[in-house]
Specification:
The protein has 173 residues and is an alpha/beta fold. The protein contains 4 helices and 7 strands; from the N terminus they run βαβαββββαβα. Helix content is 25%, strand content 23%. A 7-stranded mixed sheet has the order 1-7-6-2-5-4-3, with helices on both faces. Helix 1 (10-23) packs across helix 2. The protein starts with a strand and ends with a helix.
Length: 173
């Protein structure tokens, strides 16, 4: 969890960590979880549009300006195949990211507005959730990493107050 006030760089931090896991390019000082092979990952936001405008922008580069893809935290040389999202202009559904081990990580963009059901079924190594979600989606995200030993991390400002998700981290009841 990275919980702080608005405009403090939470999304930047979340994108930087996701890029490190996807590419396997860990800094020497990194003490967190490491993956020595390609991973399957989801990066999510509240709506399809905010996922595109914030999460995708910080990871890949400006939506709608393909010539600038690779200016986010994932370098252009590491971006492979890109599948566009249907029905959301300039949004990416899935893309392949070159991993240091020689294989390809898979990154899929999600949103909370699609509901818990769209979060079922997959086994993943990493999930980054940008902004607070409801407890049912957070629980579903945790379930996606159970069998892989993966991680879920979330970056947000607690605009919902002492919600169930906030209480999980702070021990508040």
């Amino acid at each position: 969890l990275l919980m702080a006030s608005n405009r403090f760089g939470k999304s930047l931090c979340g994108a930087a960590e996701m890029a490190i896991h996807l590419t396997g390019r860990y800094p020497e000082w990194w003490e967190g979880k490491r993956f020595d092979k390609p991973i399957r990952a989801w990066a999510a936001g509240v709506t399809n549009e905010t996922t595109r405008d914030i999460v995708q922008d910080k990871l890949i580069g400006p939506p709608g300006r393909k010539e600038e893809w690779g200016t986010g935290y994932i370098p252009a040389v590491d971006i492979g195949d890109v599948s566009p999202s249907r029905g959301i202009a300039d949004a990416i559904d899935t893309c392949s990211i070159k991993h240091l081990s020689g294989g390809w990580s898979s990154l899929q963009f999600k949103s909370y507005e699609r509901g818990r059901e769209k979060w079922q079924g997959a086994a993943l190594e990493v999930i980054w959730m940008d902004e607070e979600c409801d407890q049912d989606i957070y629980s579903e995200a945790l379930t996606r990493t159970n069998e892989t030993g993966g991680i879920v991390y979330i970056t947000f400002t607690p605009l919902k107050g002492y919600s169930t998700v906030v209480s999980r981290f702070l021990g508040l009841t």
